[in-house]
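#structure-requests
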Amino acid sequence: MSFIAELSLILIAAAVLCCYVGWGAARLALPPSLASFRAPLTPLIGYVVLLWSGFMLASLVLNLRWTVAVILIGATVLNILTWRAEGPPQPLAWLRAQPEALIPPLLALLTGILPLLEYGYPTIIGRGWDTEAYLPMAQHLIDYSLPRIPEAPQSLLRDLVTHPPRIGLTLGFSIFHGMTMIFSGASALASFAPVIAFMRALAVLAMYVWLRATMDAGRVGSFLGATLTALTSLMLWIGYFNFGMQMSAWCLLALALTTGLAAVDDLAQRRLAAWRGALLAAIALAAIPIAYYPALVIAVPLISAAGAARLFETWRHPQPYTTPISLALAALALAGLTLAASALAVQDYFEGFSFRYSLIEPKIGPDRFIGVDEILGLTAFRLSNDGDQPPSLLIGVALLATVLPGCAALVLPHRWRNDADAGERTRLRWTLTIAAVAAALIWLRFGRPYEYGFMKGAAYTSFVIWGLTASGVERIAQWTKRTGMLLASSAALLILACTGWSQSLTVADHIRGPAIFTRDIAAFDRVAAQLPHGATVLLSGDETLTGPINGMLATMLYGKELWGRVPAAYAAQSFWSPGETPNYVVLAAREDPWPLDVGAKERWRSSAIALYEMPPDATFVLGRSESYVIAAVDPKSPASLAIWRRAGHNRVIAPNEPFTLEMPHAATLRLTLAALEAQTVMLRQGHTTTTLSLEAGVTTIKTGSSSTVQVIPTAPLALVHAVVSPTDTPTPVSTSLDITRVAWSATSEQQGDQIVLSTSLANPGNHALRYEVIIIGDTFDAPVRIARLLAAAPLEGEWRLALDLARGASEARMNGAPAPMLAADVAVNPPDGRYFGVLAIYSGGAVVAQAPLFTMTMSEGAVATFEPVFFSVETARARSDASPLPAHQRALLAGTPLMCDELRLALEQIVLERQSPPPGVTPVTPLSPGERLNVQVFWRATGDRENQDRSPMVSFQVLDDENRKWAQWDGVLGDWLPVPAWKPGAAVRQDIPLTLDAATPPGDYRLLLIVYDPSTGRPILVAGQEAAVVGKVRVAASGGIDP
């Protein structure tokens, strides 16, 4: 199904669901005064019934699947009765009479989904993190009633949404979202933004009906007011920013005013005969707290103003069947019904919502109380209050054009009406309504000053102000035919130009691309849906996924049991079932593909995420000491998160701490161990003992056994992991040293005024590496970096760094001798605060290992507290192995090194890496024009380096059959480590950035590597060639593929 078709299906499903459920209720229950507005009120009534019924049933006994079935059965019965009583629906008759009523809602709907149409794929548009609660809430309610959510598979989001009052989550949005998912078959991710846009369109439609039915506006005034409401950029931004609860309640404000006032009038006149309308109005009023409790801050003053105006009208102009007392009694009766209908929501409020909403704490901004121009959408709202805006003159004139017609609406009566009482009634209603809005805004601004809360509350008031302005424009046009028409048209055009300009800026801010969930993340949704329900998935805690991305991945993996130390935006989990192996592993794309080392298959990859399928019959034992330990974390501390994600050190195996593994059946065991020194290891299998010699580095021991296996070293080493695979054939004992990896460890301590860091390295492959040490503030709020040091690592042995932060001094030593720094930036006398240190190890331009070293606090220029992180022996992959490689990488050389005899160098391997591979990339997926590549070139010094004082250059080129270049890069061979500095046997990784020309035509291309002397331009032979062809690539018109 195409994306446009999927989007259309979601919107049609939401609309049909609302109309089907609302048709019978609207025809049978709406008061007689609203009979002419049954058609536009039908989807709104259906929406209210769905929210209220869904909340009542899902909160108590039924999941949303059964809830929708019950509602549809009830709606079907009601629709049949209505058909028999009043005949079939006639929507076209109303559309022919008032076609303009649908234009503003359709405009609101279009602008709500416009960014999605530009992206071309389903995703979340804005930066808000609340999707982490909305989406899993809808998913769980589809399958479980609220009390039974704890029965769902283990997941950090299951625990998050188990008790909604605790996190301040009202259920209205999630209920309607879940119902739309059921009806359309769309995923939570795909349907979220369309549902937000649909709710915004409902709000605009409700506003049109409110102006016509309650505020006595004409067709022109109602159309203009609804259009201006649709063009209000603040509410569009709120929709883009994922404020689902706020958007779900918006349409209920105008609807409650319309149905509530009509129901009170009907009750006062017909008493018990008006019970249907009263019940419907009570449900509409009760739906407001179900959708969003804070909406009552605006709804209650508006409802009170409408009631006061109606009472005053009746007192001033007595009517035969309606008196102030009867109205008051009717209002009390409706209030009682409303309280009864909202009893469950009231109970939830006091179980947690009241506490959540009593807090005033910084959220996402803004850091200011927004002005009337932002409330009305005359300027584009942004959290940071910067960026392009309409011209100041236009804003000022539009604001004046807003105020003056509003004043006219409060003064001028309807000219075409001879009923003076009707004009007085309308002016009174507008006066009290505006007074209610002003009172609410004043309370939000001064009674409980909170910039974030003021912004969200003030956004609800724009439809009232635009309704007043539109009514004033209509009045001016009526009172003086030509002049009035000109003035009214000019005012309307000015306001429309300014609001339209502002809204176009808001759309432009979001149309460039989604804020968080890009194509490479969103595409995982369909892949995750294909995994078996109930499968166990280990989810990475990598820092590139920490926060809302992990939350979205957990949402996409709904129905699966999630393992791992996973920090999301509002939740975190620490879970791994001991002795069991996950079925799948989800890692950040940049992470070391360790599942491939244990026999897993890469199932899917994008530039952000990689999915691996673990061997079905293998048992995987992770070496991390705290992998199976449930631990809490401080989500506001980057240091705490980094230490927690690490899950402890690799398990130490020592002479007095042997490693024992029970083998219940005949199996092959692969033990991967890391050691900093050469030693012997005793491997006991039942009554057999084998002595093995291990070199320093990372070694895999492979053996077959059907009994207990015990590993006893002569010196401490560390367990990286163990894999047990069933086998029917004997497996002899063997060892394999991995020269592509290094073993390392680090210690840090405070010595007086100094911080001393020591690292040890076992490097059997002689890889040239770099150490980077950073000390940074332990906060997410503009952290201060007080130190950054970069140095070459020894090929083997110890590197030691001493830091004096008070003086801003540093000293490095390599195996005891002073060593120069590649970069040193240490702040003198850093500010007081909490900091943490991080060590990164570079191979070429890539970070191959990163770990927190310590936490500390500075006070008055001195280290007040210092807490080191313990390390046993860690590992890092210094170079890519030829096999297996992730799907976005491809080894170009067949295995035979290319020799450069003149420089005494060998080109051992070249790996072509796609920087932004399309989702679902495979090794044979063609490249795209303009694609960015990273060419990993692995050199090795093959001989004595004497008399090698030249720094040659290397050129990497992409040529077609006619030798035209479509990409080229030239730079120093060795990059940060020029050839004269190489030691014999050193292996140097060089990362070459290469970007294909955006105009590269489809076809096959050659990859050429050229080494040359920069002083003369003379080529230096590589494999006996001046230009060595090291591989081929294929370019297609588009490298993107469907996941």
